[in-house]
Design brief:
Distance between the termini: 10 Å
Largest sheet: 4 strands, antiparallel
Structural class: alpha+beta
Oligomer: single chain
Number of helices: 2
CATH architecture: Sandwich
Shape: globular
Number of strands: 8
Strand content: over 45%
Helix content: 10-25%
Order of helices and strands: HHEEEEEEEE
Length: about 140
Amino acid sequence: MSVRTILSIVAILSLSLRADLMEARKFARKAEMQMRRGGYKIVSTRGAKLRTSEDKTFRVMLYRGNSYAILGYGESSVKDLDVQIYDREWRIVKEDYTIGSIYAIHFRPKQTGVYYINTTMYRGSGYFFLSVGWR
């Protein structure tokens, strides 16, 4: 699945995004279904509540040779999420600063190891979810 396909899936799914946690969870489940249809196995879905300028970092184990789709999405009060993926030395290896409440990253690690996915609430506040899938 290409990055363009992932972004298209996210754009379609964003039409159903609503203003409360329950709707954000439903959106997370829909995103996971779309990822599975694209051949991805879901590693995890995690969430947090953030205010403007706050961030949340999740630690994940990623494997060389696998292709990862990383989708982040927020409820309607979330206006802009940014994401960075760091390696174990805390060097940025991938990032997305697109304006909006949704991000999608396709990533192939060069090395197996621990990576950190950091999401920053650039503007807005509320719940966001992060799904990681691999194939």
